[in-house]
């Protein structure tokens, strides 16, 4: 059977391993990671202090060890709250850590009671576990698949809180309870193992969530235009093919708008690329006001955009296209005289995404040819400019 010292040293090693993995994530923009990294460092220190409690002075074995480990748990809670975009409550947690350390000192130097020290430390750790679980449950509306990391963390929080409460009850009511944290009895080793491994387990749970956040950030970066936030050209083909399959399955119409900004190049030439970037961002902002949540605005490159419009027939598509054209025309404070030409195509039975794009592009060319600032559509294979 492992000794209590070995249990704490293994827990310290697990904190160190988790620290190494988390440290590689520190620059990935996920909030809360830095707090969890700090918690693993404090967890290493706290477990080492517990492990060598007999070799250290009483002050380090009691007050410092409990204070450092309590700080580690508090920082884990702050990290979880940041992961789920909640305030960290750093000041409140700092007061709690100081209060626990002072209470441990009181029941060490003023009124020596192992039971009181055990109850204070265990109830504190149970409260931390409960607060982490509560934070996850409060944020359940923001959960995204996969759910198993959140369910894992909730299960661990429940077990940790229950384990600490059982420890307090057993310490208070059982005959011949342990009189030292390092007492090598079977029950004491089991309880200490569960408590010591709680911190690395919670840090590992945060690692699972952080990993998923990083994957989502990478997917977002790949599928969205970095400047405007619109869907990227790559995402356009994924979304377009998916919508064509859905339209074929449901029998509902689908339309595509290709939008090209008129007189955009002079903005860059006259005012610089920063002004051009501002025009593009403001343009996307304005266009999105006219679209539904099921529509997808994609930047195809430069000043050309596409709008995928599921469940939209030709009449609906032309109506929206004219609203977009009018809105752009009226936004002189943003676009400095920039207008838009729009080509409209609706899905036909034999269409692929490429053929749909080709027909919308032909309609767009016709709008440009007829003087710009127009909407053009096709009837069958015959292209006709739509009057504005």
UniProtKB/TrEMBL annotation:
Sequence ranges assigned to domain GGDEF in this UniProt record: 252-380
This protein's UniProt keywords: Membrane, Nucleotidyltransferase, Transferase, Transmembrane, Transmembrane helix
InterPro entries, A to Z: Diguanylate_Cyclase, GGDEF_dom, Nucleotide_cyclase, Rev_trsase/Diguanyl_cyclase
An MF annotation (GO) of this entry: diguanylate cyclase activity
Chemical reaction(s) catalysed: 2 GTP = 3',3'-c-di-GMP + 2 diphosphate
Transmembrane feature ranges: 6-24, 36-53, 59-80, 92-111, 123-139, 151-169, 189-210
EC id: 2.7.7.65
NCBIfam families: GGDEF
Protein name: diguanylate cyclase
